[in-house]
Amino acid sequence: MARTERGSHWPWLLWALAVGGAALWWALYQTTWFTVANVRVAGNSRLATQAIIERAAVIAGSPLASVDTATIQAAVAQFPQVESVRVERGWPHTVVITVQERQPVAVARSAGRYTLVDATGTAAAPSSDSAVAGRVVIDGKPGSAAMAAAVTVLAGLPKEWKVTGLSAPTQDSVEVRLAGGVTVVFGSGAEDRKSTRLNSSHTDIS
Predict the structure, then answer these.
(1) Which long-range contacts (CB under 8 A, 24 or more apart) does 143-149 make?
(2) Considering the entire predicted model, what is its pTM?
(3) 109-131, pLDDT tens digit by residue?
């Protein structure tokens, strides 16, 4: 008899769960309690906040639960300045977009255009005259294997070398121009990075 009484509670429990689920769905999708009211952007310095918001194309007033974070992430990641992006829901009314921008290490010069490139040789942003100042200019195409080799070579050069520029015709031929008209030609970027550090104490071409 006692077993029968305990079993009789199940229909009520299932009913309560169903009602609770329906109430939650109604609150999330059919009311203004959890709708998008604003978009917050973090982590950007060179890329304008408004440009990110426009690219994200979040619809104000839409249910926050229905926001497609993957689509927003893919859209914002198309900016060349962006290395990575994370999109989250900030309950009850906010979409939070956090970006990590590429950090420029040099300037690529190709077809008369200047482009900031990061440590992988990938384009970080179009370059202005002020951005070029103080940065090493590499003649080569951003995003190419040759540019990747060039920035690898650049990262491994001894700090005392007075570098005036680089050229990257191919990934196996990187030319480093130094003050005084000296030119050093490197092959494989990875190997030359190691050998340059090993031999820097024996080289005086600064």
Answers:
(1) 144/168, 144/171, 145/170, 145/171, 146/170, 146/171, 146/173, 146/174, 147/108, 147/117, 147/121, 148/120, 148/121, 148/189, 149/121, 149/174, 149/186, 149/188, 149/189
(2) 0.71
(3) 999 899 999 999 999 887 766 66
